[in-house]
Amino acid sequence: MYFVAAVLAVLSGLFYAAGHHQIGSLGATMCQYGGIFCDSPVLVLVGAGFAAAWGVLVSVR
Fold first, then answer.
1. Which of 14, 21, 53, 56 has a CA 20 to 30 Å removed from the CA of 46?
2. How many other β-carbons are positioned within 10 Å of the β-carbon of residue 46?
């Protein structure tokens, strides 16, 4: 789950950059298919937080 949380955190940053037109044509394509995430990248970041919290809760030590 930590891997999923890390991937979602990176995606949140990418959607933030795409929403502010900082990564060129890739950003335009990202916002075409995931427009809500370009408008609110914090939604993906919250998902990353939930994934990290889930990873902590189900961690076996």
1. 21
2. 13
Burial of 14 (0-12, 13-18, 19+ CB in 10 A): buried
Distance, CA of 48 to CA of 35 (rounded, Å): 18
**CA separation for the pair 61, 48 (Å, rounded):** 22
Q: Are 51 and 15 in contact (CB under 8 A)?
A: no
Q: pLDDT tens digit string along 20-44?
A: 999 989 999 999 998 899 999 999 9
Tokens (6 digits) for 11: 């995606």
DSSP 38: H
pTM: 0.86
